[in-house]
Design a protein that fits this description.
The radius of gyration is 20 Å and the shape is globular. Helix 3 runs parallel beside helix 7. It is 30% helix and 22% strand. The chain has a single domain, classed as Vaccinia Virus protein VP39 (Rossmann fold). The chain has a seven-stranded mixed sheet, with helices on both faces. The protein has ten helices and 15 strands. The chain is α/β, with parallel strands linked by helices and 322 residues long. Helix 6 links the parallel strand 7 and strand 8.
């Protein structure tokens, strides 16, 4: 079982306190529904990770931790095996006492593309929707956030996050809750809300934008990263059964359409700040994620197309104000 008591104590003293009216019951219900052998195995792996007091932590340039007294090769091998019990690792990378968790995605590249375009996170309370293993939560803390909250309903991602947190010395500035955005009350309490790689998985993208807006303080900032296609306003791709082998991709807008969606959802100052094709160096198989990755999802003859014939993944970052 995961103990969320520390998080409850933290938010009881800040503008998230109203969340406590529903949150403990939601998390208790989630834990009751996720007691299975895999979850118990992951929890057991976390318990067997050593409790190391780190001497050097870098969350500004990476997610890295080290100790002045190097850990033995045997201990490194033990930690590596415990972490590999929680494969696949998709978002990262993490550098932990000489162990490089080389994840499928170079999530640090995405962070570098957006960090210079967003409002300062110094002293802020921020939310990351669909946060996966929580890699970006730690980068948000490195950028000065006072509290970074991630939500993602997948049990594996919660366990990966808790494993990293333990190896970082049980840092309480970041927390991951196994919830979906639709389960959050309208808190209106986060200074910045991030939604990265989520919008195209939603059956109703405008509903998702309204849900994000409901979590922001007045004048708070939305940071949204999503797949886009080339095209004019009112253009969006609605793929068939699969897009790049993903089943749950519903709408991929053009950049002008995405701006229009943000404005229709009540955001102001909506703008594009970055756009880039996803490269085979940014998303790929590694020893920490050994199943199919981007190279398997693209047309082997024409890498500008997915295996289904759609435009290859192009990702854009937008910012907007509530």
């Amino acid at each position: 079982m995961i103990d969320f008591g520390d998080f409850y104590q933290i938010i009881a003293k800040n503008k998230l306190s109203r969340w406590l009216e529903v949150l403990p019951a939601q998390l208790a219900n989630w834990q009751n529904q996720n007691i299975d052998n895999r979850f118990n195995q992951w929890i057991n792996s976390i318990k067997h990770l050593p409790s190391i007091i780190p001497d050097q932590i870098d969350l500004l340039h990476s997610v890295s931790v080290n100790s002045e007294q190097p850990i033995s090769i045997g201990e490194q091998q033990r930690i590596t095996q415990l972490l590999k019990n929680m494969m696949p690792w998709r978002k990262g990378p993490f550098h932990l006492y000489g162990i490089d968790v080389d994840t499928e995605w170079r999530s640090d590249w995405k962070w570098e593309r957006l960090i210079n375009h967003i409002d300062s996170l110094e002293g802020k309370i921020v939310l990351d929707v669909g946060c996966n293993s929580g890699y970006h939560l730690w980068r948000m803390i490195g950028a000065g956030a006072k509290l970074a909250v991630g939500i993602d309903p997948m049990a594996l991602y919660l366990c990966q996050f808790e494993a990293i947190r333990k190896l970082l010395g049980n840092d309480q500035r970041a927390h991951l809750l196994p919830l979906g955005i639709e389960q959050l009350p309208k808190l209106g309490a986060f200074d910045t809300v991030f939604s990265m790689g989520v919008l195209y998985h939603r059956r109703s993208p405008l509903d998702h934008l309204f849900q994000l807006k409901d979590q922001l303080v007045e004048d708070g900032q939305l940071v949204l990263e999503t797949l886009v296609i080339d095209g004019a306003e009112h253009t969006a791709l609605m793929p068939g059964e699969r897009y790049a082998q993903m089943r749950n991709v519903y709408f991929i807008p053009s950049v002008p359409t995405m701006i229009n969606w943000l404005e229709k959802s009540g955001f102001s100052d909506a703008k594009l700040v970055d756009i880039s094709l996803t490269s085979l160096d940014e998303q790929r198989k590694t020893e920490w994620m050994t199943s199919d990755s981007l190279a398997d999802f693209l047309d082997p003859i024409d890498l500008t197309k997915t295996i289904e014939g759609y435009p290859a993944p192009m990702r854009a970052v937008f910012i907007a104000k509530k």
